[in-house]
Every structure is written in structure tokens, then in C-alpha cells.
Amino acid sequence: MLNRVVLIGRLTWDPELRYTPNGVAVTSFRLAVDRPFTNQQGERETDFIDIVVWRQLAETVANYMKKGRLVAVEGRLQVRSFENNEGRRIRVSEVVGDNVRFLDRGGDRSGGSGFNQGYDNPGGMSKDRGPSDDPFADDGKPIDISDDDLPF
């Protein structure tokens, strides 16, 4: 059997970080995902999918994600049910994410500070560099460097 979900969409609100009574971090957020087709009026419809992430990933998402950010989520679909305060049985479908990728730079749509996998902190999160700090910003233009500066 296989239960894998891969979604790409935008956060509809800032992630909410909570802790279980045992101290385990859990973060929830909702992802707006466009359908790959249009309706009869020629408009794209959007699905709003609840996502839950746990432990270290929960803290990372809560610290670096903001409303409007484009993310990819990989995980599994989970359907659970519970009884609400009125005694009615409620059924909830959500994706339990085990991998979340940041797909845009924070300032593009959300206006918040952006974070990505930085070259000054391999494998970790680092503050997004501005265009003037980017060593590849000249893209295609000759770089003025002497042979003495090269390590080879």
C-alpha cells in the first residue's frame, strides 16, 4: 500500500506552532493549491488543504514561513475523527508533512524576510542575501579577478 502526497501551494495564514503536553512541537497551516484545470467560467478553482508537521520541522516551518509563501509539502494523507463539544462526530482530512521545501524568496509576495538554504551556512537556514551580496549577480559579465586570487 502507498500513501504519498506532494503539494505545491501558498500558505493562507502564518503557521501556528504549539507543543504537546510532552513537549513535542506541532505546527499547522493551510495550503492553497490551484487545480490544474478551469471551471466552465474559465476560472481556476483552488483547494485549501490542512497541513500538520511535527518536531524539528514544525519549529523550522513556524520560524521561517509566513502567509503567502510558496512551498512544496511531501507527506501522507491522514483522516481522523473526533467528537466535538456538541457530541457530533467530526471527520478531518489533513496531510502530515514530513518534508517542506521553501520555493520562493520571502519578499516576493509576503513582504516578510526571506530565508533559504544559504551558501554561508551549508545545510542550514540563513538570512536571504540582498542582490549586492550575491557573488553571481553579474551573471555573464566578466569578473575582475587576478590569477593570485584563484585557489588552483
Automatic annotation (TrEMBL):
Plays an important role in DNA replication, recombination and repair. Binds to ssDNA and to an array of partner proteins to recruit them to their sites of action during DNA metabolism. The keyword DNA damage applies. Keywords: DNA damage, DNA recombination, DNA repair, DNA replication, DNA-binding. Residues 126-144 have a biased composition (Basic and acidic residues). NCBIfam families: ssb. It holds the Pfam family SSB. The keyword tRNA-binding does not apply. Homotetramer. A motif (Important for interaction with partner proteins) lies at residues 147-152. It comes from the Bacteria. GO terms for cellular component: nucleoid. This is Single-stranded DNA-binding protein. Residues 103-152 are annotated as: Disordered. GO terms for molecular function: single-stranded DNA binding. It comes from Melghirimyces thermohalophilus. GO terms for biological process: DNA recombination; DNA repair; DNA replication.
